[in-house]
Amino acid sequence: MEKLQTTFLNEEKEFSEKIKQLRERIYDHKPVVHHITNFVTMYQCARITAFLGAAPIMAFAQEETAQVTAKSDALVINTGTLNDEVIRSIPKSLEYANAHHIPVVLDPVGARLSAYRFDFIHGLLNSFHFDVIRCNGVELLGLHGQAIYGKGIDGASSSVEIPQAAAELARQYHCTVACTGPVDHISDGTRSVSLNRGCPQLPKLVGTGCMVNSLIASYLPVAQTSLDGAAAGILTMCLAGEAAAARLSRPDQLGTFETYLMDGISQLYTNE
């Protein structure tokens, strides 16, 4: 197996300057992020994209989705709430994005929950290019072809380590794989970054993975590499989460935490 150049980021200062520079570029260029995403979390994704400084748009109808992608700077594909209309729309947007080098984030939500879902996701991966696959451990190991032990769509155990699986999947699909969890592992197949930041409230808040997709997609048009964009998006969420948790009077104030999280996104490394 290829030896990876690995960086373990324990301290905010090691990446903070890069995030500052990328945020300035986002404010200058205001990239438009087209979401074909989970119906459950659309509002959260729209808010977090706007609070970072980018411009969200949601369009699902197959009659317009490619035209909307044509007016966008990045595309998010999320398979959390698939239906036949969405399944017909997604390839149309991907065809345009790939032909015009618009960066794409794929979130293969619940890839192994059903044959309907897995067959569609597998078909996408073999037909289109994705700049970033953002997933959790269960989804990563499922796409990697491993037997998974666990429940639902979160948490996994397998004979294959997550960093190894991320690097191998990145090489297989020529992309960056960003696997979020207690430790976040990001790899482009050659370089790997591990992030050990965040707070206990983030995994309890529904939609954090979807929101991270939006952050990554906002960074991708202004980042030098997809690995930089993925790391910036994930670390932004972690640091904003830490800032939000520090403001709570009790750790179980999850509704308040979400409000503070959005404030943290808008305030991170800015004077605003």
Automatic annotation (TrEMBL):
GO terms for biological process: thiamine biosynthetic process; thiamine diphosphate biosynthetic process. Pathway: Cofactor biosynthesis; thiamine diphosphate biosynthesis; 4-methyl-5-(2-phosphoethyl)-thiazole from 5-(2-hydroxyethyl)-4-methylthiazole: step 1/1. It is an enzyme of class 2 (transferase). It comes from the Bacteria. Gene3D superfamilies: 3.40.1190.20. Its cofactor is Mg(2+). Keywords: ATP-binding, Kinase, Magnesium, Metal-binding, Nucleotide-binding, Thiamine biosynthesis, Transferase. It catalyses: 5-(2-hydroxyethyl)-4-methylthiazole + ATP = 4-methyl-5-(2-phosphooxyethyl)-thiazole + ADP + H(+). One of its GO terms (molecular function) is hydroxyethylthiazole kinase activity. Substrate binds at M58, G207. It holds the Pfam family HK. ATP binds at R134, T180. Its EC number is 2.7.1.50. Signal peptide: none annotated. HAMAP family: Thz_kinase. Belongs to the Thz kinase family. Catalyzes the phosphorylation of the hydroxyl group of 4-methyl-5-beta-hydroxyethylthiazole (THZ). This is Hydroxyethylthiazole kinase. The lineage of its organism: Bacteria, Bacillati, Bacillota, Clostridia, Lachnospirales.
